[in-house]
């Protein structure tokens, strides 16, 4: 069975498959948003039916962590630019900073939990609205973990010197996801601030 | 990631030309951890069939209890041990049987078994794609599903038995491990299994959507896609938009069960002990659950609708009636399915005004459903019908969709639902419209695409036997249940004959159970046919049903990448059957209009002036008079 495939067809297949894979990530972003939509709508219906929200002043740590996360997003943006300009050293250092800020965010979140815990607003609580704070920030932290994996993947690519195409692909995937979890956290934080 | 794999595959194709697929394909990469969508489809199908047989067996067990509540069957004790002491099924175990039967049928058979099989098989094959957007994720999707199945079945082998709170696992029953024996470890396993299942479905669904939107072959615009693909595509969208909400609900339920939170719990006294949980509301679970749960029933039925469209059109040798209407009605069902979940909750103390809103949205779904039904019937009307087993199953699907759909209009009414809620009327309704209809759609798909999957034909005579027995028995089983429901017999009762006014229904239950047993035995004809034909069936030709769609242009022998050479280009819609003037009664999608000058219609050119001019000139040269272009 002899046959030939035109080179441009092969490239076309390849392009559409990369595009399709990025699209896969976007769809994941959509479904993840909907899951958090599920949590926040639980909160809204709960608060409406009981006539009370969590009623807390949220710990300052959440503000700091939000700033850290926004900073990390900015860093990643410049890292992506460095990848496109093929500036390996800038790319590496920016990615390391992003990673450090991401981990710092995780630390601050846990810190915020312990601050909440010390004021008596525990996870096991007769006000489910307070429990929701732990649930959404915890589920978000799982997303941070996945995001860290994406950034590590990109970093690994910069050390193993993958082809430029592949490096761009890796950083694009990491960027889509990391900016998403950044925006997601801002949404959750603002939501919790507004619905106290 | 898998980009690299794909790239390599293509390079192989390009350079040495003889070697398709992976270089070193071992038994494990070919049959177990396969990334080929065709193999994954078969894995889903066979797992789905195994799960269906198990769930059917469970239903026979609880039907025995319903028909002969006072009789002892010593053989049951032999098999079930302490769950059937003295040969009688225990109440706890009865509830577990009902729960796991529902869970397996809805999720594992009709969601994963149906979508997983046919979306995987047909999306790449009918759209002209070499494989899914992410073959690796596709493989992961199957294996997560498999693990979910194993965990669900494992709950039969633990001390406290499987989950027993019904397939909807309403708290507080499901949220308090000490509530009933099934709420203990069995419920935990149920939740773990469902989380894995949802992850599997999301991976699958995301893959399907991305493949449909990004990877279609040349010429395959959205309006040239077969209705099967439209149905799978919209089903996948439903799944991606609704399953995450179930995850949200399940996460909260897990925290209530295992960490002592009060999302769904409040004011509960167990015996003499007051539980500390306060402030939650079990109604909130119902909202989260049914926001998935209702789209879920369309996730179950829409692939069956799509498969039936294709099978009915091919075997009527007629274009599908109202292609666009079929697509728009699918879209209509998709959109509406998100705003009707409240009709499961009419009797939860819902504000009557809100109930009215949900009632109206629910009844509106009758419109796209009726459009589809009439289009099926209009396609059959005066068709050149070939009664293949697949065709019979597809017609059976339409029949169940009508007879089960009609009772949906009763149940969708908030006021009628006060009487009918949680009675056998509901059981009859959804077993016809969602259970039987979807199963028949799935069977139609199996009979129709078996030659594509295994390169062999299934035996038609056994197919007819299987169809008629199953079709008749399904009606005999489910139709009488309507009358039980109208009389107020509640579902899920272990021994409703304890209530005097319901005792008269025992004779009906005996009849129903016998019908169910015959239906179950009829499946042996299918199972034998299926597994025997995989190895010993008659060899299939490339296009056994004389069908137009792209999957029949691939070689009978499977190759990784589907087409040996270039992917075919699509020139026309998939339903050019019995076109006047054509040489044969089907014109595959790959045939350009320039090769069918005799049969081209004015509207084929979609207003392309150049093509119309060429056709006019050809008509003039050949002395053919047509209506004005």
Automatic annotation (TrEMBL), chain A:
Keywords: Cell membrane, Membrane, Transmembrane, Transmembrane helix. InterPro entries: Cyt_c/ubiquinol_Oxase_su3 (IPR024791), Cyt_c_oxidase-like_su3 (IPR000298), Cyt_c_oxidase_su3-like_sf (IPR035973), Cyt_c_oxidase_su3_a-hlx (IPR013833). GO terms for molecular function: cytochrome-c oxidase activity. The chain crosses the membrane at residues 23-49, 61-82, 94-116, 128-152, 173-194. One of its GO terms (cellular component) is plasma membrane. Its main location: membrane. Residues 1-196 form the Heme-copper oxidase subunit III family profile domain. Belongs to the cytochrome c oxidase subunit 3 family. This is Cytochrome C oxidase subunit III.
UniProtKB/TrEMBL annotation, chain B:
Residues 7-21 have a biased composition (Basic and acidic residues). It is a multi-pass membrane protein. The keyword Ribonucleoprotein does not apply. The chain crosses the membrane at residues 44-64, 93-118, 139-158, 187-209, 229-255, 288-308, 320-341, 353-378, 390-412, 424-450, 462-485, 505-532. It is found in: Membrane. Keywords: Electron transport, Heme, Iron, Membrane, Metal-binding, Respiratory chain, Transmembrane, Transmembrane helix, Transport. Belongs to the heme-copper respiratory oxidase family. This is Cytochrome C oxidase.
């Amino acid at each position: 069975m002899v046959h030939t495939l035109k080179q441009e067809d092969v490239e076309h297949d390849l392009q559409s498959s990369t595009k399709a894979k990025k699209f896969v990530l976007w769809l994941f972003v959509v479904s993840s948003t909907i899951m958090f939509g599920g949590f926040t709508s639980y909160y809204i219906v709960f608060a409406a039916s009981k006539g009370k929200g969590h009623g807390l002043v949220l710990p300052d740590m959440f503000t700091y962590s939000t700033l850290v996360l926004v900073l990390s997003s900015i860093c990643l943006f410049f890292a992506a630019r460095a990848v496109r300009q093929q500036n390996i050293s800038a790319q590496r250092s920016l990615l390391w900073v992003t990673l450090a800020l991401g981990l710092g965010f995780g630390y601050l979140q846990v810190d915020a939990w312990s601050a909440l815990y010390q004021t008596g607003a525990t996870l096991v609580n007769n006000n489910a609205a307070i429990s929701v704070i732990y649930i959404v920030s915890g589920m978000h932290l799982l997303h941070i973990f996945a995001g860290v994996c994406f950034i590590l993947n990109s970093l690994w690519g910069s050390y193993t010197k993958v082809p430029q195409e592949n490096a761009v692909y890796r950083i694009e995937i990491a960027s889509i996801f990391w900016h998403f979890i950044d925006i997601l956290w801002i949404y959750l934080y603002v939501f919790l601030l507004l619905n106290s | 990631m898998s980009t690299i794999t794909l790239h390599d595959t293509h390079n192989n194709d390009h350079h040495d030309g003889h070697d398709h697929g992976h270089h070193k394909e071992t038994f494990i990469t070919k049959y177990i951890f396969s990334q080929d969508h065709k193999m994954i489809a078969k894995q889903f199908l066979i797992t789905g069939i195994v799960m269906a047989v198990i769930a059917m067996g469970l239903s026979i067990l609880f039907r025995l209890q319903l028909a002969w509540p006072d009789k002892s069957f010593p053989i049951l004790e032999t098999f079930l041990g302490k769950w059937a002491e003295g040969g009688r099924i225990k109440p706890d175990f009865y509830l577990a049987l009902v729960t796991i039967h529902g869970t397996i049928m809805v999720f594992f058979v009709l969601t994963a078994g149906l979508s997983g099989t046919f979306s995987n098989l047909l999306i790449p094959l009918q759209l002209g794609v070499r494989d899914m957007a992410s073959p690796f994720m596709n493989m992961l999707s199957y294996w997560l599903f498999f693990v979910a199945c194993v965990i669900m079945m494992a709950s039969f082998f633990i001390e406290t038995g499987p989950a027993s709170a019904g397939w909807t696992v309403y708290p507080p029953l499901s949220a308090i491990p000490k509530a009933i024996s099934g709420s203990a470890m069995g419920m935990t396993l149920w939740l773990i299994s469902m989380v894995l299942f949802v992850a599997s479905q999301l991976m699958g669904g995301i893959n399907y959507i991305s493949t449909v939107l990004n990877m279609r072959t040349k010429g395959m615009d959205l309006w040239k896609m077969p209705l099967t693909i439209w149905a799978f595509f919209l089903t996948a969208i439903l799944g991606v938009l609704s399953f995450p909400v179930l995850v949200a609900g399940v996460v909260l339920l897990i925290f209530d069960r295992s960490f002592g939170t009060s999302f769904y719990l409040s004011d509960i006294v167990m015996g003499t002990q007051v539980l500390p949980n306060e402030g939650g509301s079990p109604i909130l679970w119902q909202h989260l659950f049914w926001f998935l749960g209702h789209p879920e029933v369309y996730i179950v039925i829409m692939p069956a609708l799509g498969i039936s469209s294709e099978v009915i059109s091919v075997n009527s040798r007629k274009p599908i009636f109202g292609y666009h209407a079929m697509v728009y009605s699918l879209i209509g069902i998709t959109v509406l399915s998100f705003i009707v979940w409240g009709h499961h909750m009419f009797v939860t103390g819902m504000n009557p005004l809100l109930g009215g809103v949900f009632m109206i949205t629910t009844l509106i779904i009758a419109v796209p459903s009726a459009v589809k039904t009439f289009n099926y019937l209009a396609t059959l009307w005066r068709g050149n019908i070939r009664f293949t087993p697949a065709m019979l199953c597809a017609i059976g699907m339409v029949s169940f969709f009508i007879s089960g759909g009609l009772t949906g209009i009763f149940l969708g009414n908030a006021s009628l639902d006060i009487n009918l809620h949680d009675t056998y009327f509901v059981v009859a309704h959804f077993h016809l419209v969602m259970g039987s209809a979807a199963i028949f759609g799935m069977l139609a798909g199996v009979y129709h695409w078996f030659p594509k999957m295994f390169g062999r034909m299934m035996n038609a005579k056994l197919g007819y036997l299987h169809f008629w027995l199953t079709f008749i028995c399904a009606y005999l089983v489910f139709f009488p249940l309507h009358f039980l429901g109208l009389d107020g017999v509640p579902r899920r009762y272990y021994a409703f004959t304890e209530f005097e006014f319901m005792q008269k229904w025992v004779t009906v239950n005996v009849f129903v159970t016998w019908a169910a047993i015959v239906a179950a035995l009829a499946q042996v004809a299918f199972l034998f046919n299926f597994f025997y034909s995989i190895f010993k069936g008659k060899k299939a030709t490339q296009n056994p049903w004389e069908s137009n769609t792209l999957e029949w242009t691939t070689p009978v022998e499977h190759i990784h990448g589907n087409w040996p050479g270039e992917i075919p280009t699509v020139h026309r819609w998939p339903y050019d059957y019995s076109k006047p003037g054509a040489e044969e009664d089907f014109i595959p999608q790959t045939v350009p209009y320039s090769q069918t000058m005799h049969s081209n219609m004015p509207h084929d050119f979609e207003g392309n002036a150049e093509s119309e001019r060429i056709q006019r000139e050809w008509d003039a040269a050949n002395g053919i008079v047509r209506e004005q272009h």
